[in-house]
Amino acid sequence: MFVSFFPRPRLFFLSAIAWTALAMALWYFYAGDLFGSSEPPVVGVAMFWSARSLWFDVYFALGVMIFAAAWIRLAPHPWAWWSIVGSALILFTSYFQVQVSVAINSWYGPFYDLVQAALSKSRPVTIEQFYSQLSTFAGIALVAVVVGVLTRFFVSHYIFRWRAAMNDFYIASWPRLRSIEGASQRVQEDTMRFATTVEGLGVNLISALLTLLAFLPVLLRLSSAVTELPLIGAIPYPLVFAAVIWSLFGTGALALIGIRLPAIEFFNQRVEAAYRKELVLGEDDPARADPPTVSMLFADIRRNYFRLYLNFMYFNVGRIVYLQTDTIFPYVLLGPTIVAGRITLGAMNQILNAFTQVRSSFQYLVNAWSTIVELISIYQRLRSFEAQIHGEPLPLIETEPAPL
After folding, report:
1. d(C-alpha 357, C-alpha 107), whole Å
2. What pLDDT is attached to residue 329?
3. Distance of CA 148 to CAs 43, 81, 97, 287, 354, Å?
4. Residue 283's pLDDT is what?
5. d(CA 58, CA 298)
6. What is the pLDDT at residue 287?
């Protein structure tokens, strides 16, 4: 799964994490202050080409060039440009999309303060000022749309290259793999699903981490007017504390509720593969796919799907209740501050957005659990392929009967 696309995956990913940590430390402690550190905060699309932003773009490109050149020279790999440089480009676009969220959050303050001033008639507000604020948002949104479309186009090619690498790797060992149940499906379908799912989860994880880095300081700065939490009282950094505890609670609870889903999803793919194989064989052999056999195989599918639906019902009850409660949770926290009138409408919206961004980052597993379940199932299926290639025993789940 990874050897086919990345050079020496274990060492590669460890070195990528170490290099990223080193580059971030150098940026925050030295390089980030070289250009544009004294610039006043910019609201609007101009923040994307401020001196500090452009310097970060150059700094990122230099770091990627050094890292990629070292790996391409020391461990040549036919897919190195796509796996190394392509992954770095996806990482950069994830960072850029987080910066779009930061730009929009900065716009919230002056815009909603302007709306509050207009509605309360506390100061004169002209229609030109109002539409000027909307045009500022339109500029940010336009940049986000262009970058988003180009990113999705590139990611589509990136995913297909990863699938092509896995396809070539498995086809080279096809004589040894063809005996595994559902082998054709695993090569034809699971490789694409694996690449797509890993890319999606990886990008979301990176975005969650970058969002934390970007919005935690913003939340700390904006929440200075919030000194206490309902039922808890005054504590340091109350909104950050509440976001962490609430997110950890939701993640732990939903992981516990959905603990059986990965195995059930694996068995679901296995019974589907057996049914499809019998039907395909029946196209050319009249002795195959007779009604009793097909009915028995379909009964296995029905039994496993019903088990899957039941377990997802438990999971969705917990997930929907948590997410609906999550909608009003920040308002509950801000209730005393809002009632006391210690913040303006603009500041409130900035706090709510920053709090939501931080909370959503901590809730990565909550939002991605269904996809993680599917990925675990696909990984187990492809892992059996690799065990066969290397002459290792098949994982126990391959021979384990489905639960009744």
Report:
1. 15
2. 85
3. 21, 22, 8, 53, 21
4. 77
5. 58
6. 80
**pLDDT at residue 403 in the model:** 53
Rounded distance between C-alpha atoms, residue 294 and residue 102, angstroms = 56
Give the span between the Cα atoms of 271 and 256, in whole angstroms: 26
How many C-alpha atoms does 357 have within 13 Å on its Cβ side? 28
The three-class DSSP label of residue 233 is strand
Contact of 294 with 244, CB cutoff 8 Å: no
Residues 383 and 270: their CA atoms lie apart, in Å, by 14
pTM: 0.69
Name the amino acid, one letter, at 116: Q
Number of H helices, E strands in the chain: 14, 2
Residue written as token pair 């509605």: 119
- The token duo for 361 is 């980052």
Range from 83-97, 276-290, 355-369 carrying the lowest mean pLDDT? 355-369
Full DSSP string of 38-80: TPPP--SGGGGGSHHHHHHHHHHHHHHHHHHHHHHHHS--TTH
What's the pLDDT at 314? 80
**Position 62 pLDDT exceeds 90:** yes
Find the length of the chain.
404
Which tokens sit at 256? 């516990």
